[in-house]
Amino acid sequence: MQESNLDRAKTHKPVVIEVSGEPLGVVVSHADGYRFLAVKLPAFAIDGQQFATIEKARFAVSQAVRNHSADLA
Asked: Do residues 25 and 43 lie in contact, with contact meaning Cβ atoms separated by under 8 Å?
């Protein structure tokens, strides 16, 4: 029984999302894909959102960073 729990833990390992080499959050497996959890201010606009793929999450994070930068200018 413990062995199946270890296998499950491996499949749910968080994936770090970076933009320009800066880690901005992680995605974790969720029922219908992945949930993004922000760790840096520019990405908080999409904190908690769900994405079908990790690639879609990366794109959304890069857009959030771009919008955050534009708001500061």
From this structure: yes
